[in-house]
User: Which sequence fits this backbone?
């Protein structure tokens, strides 16, 4: 019984110390005395926080939300070049996209272009890698007639990024060559080595 009495005393003393330390709540300041208060001249209006920002007035450059830029490359600046099923020839309607890439290369001689060949999900992985390579090289041959070939590289992704069991619309989007800008002369190896590219 003596041990129980000691434990009870220790608990009582601990509770008294705990409650004695928490007896006062801090006093909140008057809102009018704060920096954002109504009379302090604050410029932030909480109702305007979700209002759209005028980028031109703020001096910001508007950018297409589909453009993805990292340290080595810029993706999405050019539309992909699309191909027919099991074909690697550049259609007449798709040539203007490569012309835009050539014009960009003339304006930015420090940058290179990577042409990534893609396929839809049908076919073996090996066949699709070969077809993606043929598509990328067909785009390179056409682009080389418009811009320096030494600044153009190719890569076949085959069906790695294709929608598995996709419908006709998804498969049509998978049969393409993506035009990727490589920012630095040595960026090609770094961009190719990055996972998920």
Assistant:
């Amino acid at each position: 019984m003596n041990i129980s009495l000691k434990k009870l005393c220790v608990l009582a003393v601990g509770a008294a110390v705990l409650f004695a330390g928490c007896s006062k709540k801090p006093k909140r300041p008057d809102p009018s005395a704060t920096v954002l208060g109504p009379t302090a001249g604050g410029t932030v209006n909480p109702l305007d926080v979700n209002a759209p920002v005028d980028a031109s007035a703020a001096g910001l450059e508007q950018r297409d939300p589909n453009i993805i830029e990292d340290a080595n490359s810029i993706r999405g600046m050019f539309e992909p070049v699309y191909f027919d099923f099991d074909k690697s020839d550049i259609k007449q309607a798709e040539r203007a996209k490569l012309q835009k890439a050539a014009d960009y290369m003339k304006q930015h001689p420090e940058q290179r272009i990577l042409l990534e060949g893609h396929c839809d999900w049908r076919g073996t992985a090996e066949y699709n890698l070969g077809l993606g390579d043929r598509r990328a090289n067909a785009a390179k041959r056409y682009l080389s007639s418009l811009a320096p070939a030494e600044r153009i590289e190719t890569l076949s992704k085959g069906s790695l990024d294709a929608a598995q069991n996709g419908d006709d619309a998804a498969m049509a989007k998978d049969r393409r060559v993506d035009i990727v800008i490589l920012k630095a002369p040595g960026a090609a190896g770094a961009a190719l080595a990055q996972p998920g590219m």
